[in-house]
């Protein structure tokens, strides 16, 4: 495999989608891993674009069939990354970007750490996160409260990541993300390093 993986994690409402979209023109070609979830689509979300939306039963079939590179329960719903398209993209030498939670980051790092660069993104404060979740107006109060509670746990995983992005001003955070993405492309796996050493002698 020749590609590289960039994991972006952070609380719901941290600005992951916003920052990936803003940074896209600065990071060249990449493959965004579309996750599968059992949560309901939000207004404006499209199946096969934002997520693959499936039922609980369909998701559990996928688990049994070994379809997922990783999966986790987040805010009471299943979320998972399909293995096949990720492997294909890596074999094609692409940068693969994951928007997954901190549990998913641990699992991907354990399985494919050789290829992984990771970044945690957060607004400057918990109060600002809460403000943005209400301003986004896509979730009910009870769902927002659950996401805020989850964020209070997730922030403690910040030291597991290679980089942290404080999403205060969008252009600045997007530029930082682009720098990290372009560095992630340059990360060499141990197989590549071994090949380098072997050919270097000749
Ligand atoms: P995530 O993908 O991490 O759940 P979103 O990208 O949906 O988060 O961002 C959550 C909300 O915050 C959206 O309404 C978005 O427009 C807004 N937002 C993102 N970044 C900023 C920022 N730097 N300042 C103010 N609002 C922001
Ligand atoms: P949301 O419902 O706001 O789209 O996402 C909720 C949380 O689930 C976010 O932290 C997001 O990063 C995470 N998430 C999305 N897809 C996946 C996935 O495939 N695996 C894991 N482990 N987490 C995911």
From TrEMBL:
Reactions catalysed: GMP + ATP = GDP + ADP
InterPro entries: GK/Ca_channel_bsu (IPR008145), Guanylate_kin-like_dom (IPR008144), Guanylate_kinase (IPR017665), Guanylate_kinase_CS (IPR020590), P-loop_NTPase (IPR027417)
EC number of the protein: 2.7.4.8
GO CC terms: cytosol
Keyword Kinase: yes
Binding residues for ATP: 10-17
Domain named Guanylate kinase-like: residues: 3-182
Domain of life: Bacteria
CDD domains (alphabetical): GMPK (cd00071)
Gene3D superfamilies assigned to the protein according to its UniProt record, in alphabetical order: Guanylate Kinase phosphate binding domain (3.30.63.10), P-loop containing nucleotide triphosphate hydrolases (3.40.50.300)
Location in the cell: Cytoplasm
Keywords: ATP-binding, Cytoplasm, Kinase, Nucleotide-binding, Transferase
Entry function: Essential for recycling GMP and indirectly, cGMP.
Similarity field: Belongs to the guanylate kinase family.
Entry protein name: Guanylate kinase
Organism: uncultured Sulfurovum sp
Lineage summary: Bacteria, Pseudomonadati, Campylobacterota, Epsilonproteobacteria, Campylobacterales
């Amino acid at each position: 495999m020749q590609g590289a993986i960039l994991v972006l994690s952070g609380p719901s409402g941290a600005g992951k989608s916003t920052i990936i979209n803003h940074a896209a023109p600065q990071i060249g070609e990449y493959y965004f891993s579309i996750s599968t979830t059992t949560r309901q689509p939000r207004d404006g979300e499209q199946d096969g674009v934002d997520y693959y939306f499936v039922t609980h039963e369909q998701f559990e079939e996928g688990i049994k069939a070994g379809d997922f590179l990783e999966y986790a329960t987040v805010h009471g719903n299943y979320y998972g990354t399909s293995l096949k398209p990720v492997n294909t993209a890596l074999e094609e030498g692409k940068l693969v970007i994951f928007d997954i939670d901190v549990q998913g980051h641990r699992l991907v790092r354990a399985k494919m750490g050789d290829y992984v660069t990771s970044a945690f993104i957060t607004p400057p404060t918990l109060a600002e996160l809460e403000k943005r979740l209400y301003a986004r107006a896509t979730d009910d109060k009870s769902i927002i409260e659950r996401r805020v509670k989850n964020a209070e746990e997730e922030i403690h995983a910040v030291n597991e990541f290679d980089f942290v992005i404080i999403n205060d001003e969008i252009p600045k955070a997007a530029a930082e993300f682009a720098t990290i993405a372009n560095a992630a492309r340059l990360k060499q796996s141990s197989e590549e390093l071994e090949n380098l050493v072997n050919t270097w002698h000749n």
